[in-house]
Design brief:
This protein has three helices and six strands, in the order αββααββββ. By secondary structure, it is an alpha+beta fold. It is rod-shaped and about 85 Å long.
């Protein structure tokens, strides 16, 4: 009786490792953020553009633009800040980040056992 239960547990543990294995597809993206809404002094505009909230928000948007199921894996490079002067006041400017590099991931189709059209 004990031998049968041990064999059963060995067989179940063998098959459970293959079922739990999932694979991901990775993609690196490089994109630019949008400039801030208003004009501010150059130091404040750079600080606003490079806030961690903005980087997180735009990296999520970059990955979601790839299609359904894409999520942020990591932000590899936060890019460099680029500023343009506002036409009304020469002391104020709008800034954005250029060349932000983000790694996106999604589940590899068929790796979880959900094949379309199969039941």
């Amino acid at each position: 009786m004990k031998f049968n239960s041990i064999c059963l547990w060995v067989v179940l543990s063998f098959f459970s490792t293959t079922v739990l294995a999932t694979e991901f597809v990775y993609r690196d993206l490089m994109a630019n953020t949008l400039p801030s809404g208003g004009c501010a002094e150059k130091n404040k505009a750079i600080a606003t553009a490079s806030k961690s909230y903005n980087i997180t928000r735009y990296s999520k948007i970059f990955c979601q633009s790839q299609g359904y199921g894409w999520h942020v894996d990591q932000v590899k490079d936060k890019g460099k800040s680029v500023c343009t002067q506002c036409s009304a006041d020469q002391n104020k400017s709008q800034c954005h980040l250029e060349d932000v590099v983000v790694t996106c991931k999604r589940l590899k189709p068929g790796s979880v056992g959900m094949l379309p059209g199969k039941s």
